[in-house]
Design goal:
about 10% strand, mainly alpha, two-stranded antiparallel ribbon, rod-shaped, about 40% helix, two-stranded antiparallel sheet
Amino acid sequence: MIRNIAGSVLALAGATAAVWSPFRAWYDGRHGRDYAIGDLFTGITDVKADIAGSILLPLAFAALVTVVGVVLRSRLLVAFAGIVVLGFTILWMVRVGEAEGSLTIDADGTGLGDGLAFAFGGGVLLLVGALVMSGRSHTHRVDRPHRPPQPPQPPQPPQPAEPPQPPQPAEPAGTEATDRTLTYPSAPGPSGTDRTLTYPSPPEPPLEDGPERSQGPDRT
């Protein structure tokens, strides 16, 4: 956070110096706004340029890019603005050196002026500001509403174990009823032979614990 603030201050100071420089003398008392942009590519002439087509235009564009870069905390945009300012300043120095034969700084105010110093210093401050800035953080933090701490829950008492179920007594053998048939002699038939009839007998009761019951005589 501190790095972004310091870098933004340096970048804005550099952009201000770059925009202010065309209104100062660049060479032999001639202001930077008097140099046309086309003269930087074709050669310096004595024709005075309009403000809209002067060297002020690229420097103002660089200042606008700087403001956007500071708002977005973009180091790339701020560095790009510094390169634009330094690029046009150095290109102007090359063209003026070709036209004048040399670049001089005289004590009487002729030669290179303070406007060039403002432009060159502004470009350097923009690059330094881009280096100082830390840029945007890529981590996204989601703020969650504060929730009061929940009171600790009392320990639950242990559940009583269910008593074991007593084993069910096994049914004694012989409780199932079985059908038995008894045969009784019937009256003689017309043919003189005996006939027998079969009737189901009731089931015997279950045996009780104790001495074995004596078996009775079979009924016929």
